[in-house]
Amino acid sequence: MQRRRFLTTSTALALGAPLTSLLGRSGPRPLTSTPIRNNVGFYTNRGGTIGYFRPDGGVGGVVVDSQFPEPAAALLEEVYGVTKRLDLLINTHHHGDHTGGNGVVAPLAREYVMHERARQNLETAEAARTEGEAVPLPKTTFAKDWELVLPEGNETVTARHFGPAHTGGDAVIHFENANVAHVGDLLFNRRFPYVDPAAGGSLTNWIAVMRKIRRHYDRDTVFIFGHAAESYPVTGDRADLKSFENYLKSLRRYVKKEKRQGTSLEALKAKTVTIPGAPEWRFGERLRDVNLEVMWEEI
Ligand SMILES: [Zn+2]
Question: Has this prediction a pTM greater than 0.70?
Answer without folding.
Answer: yes
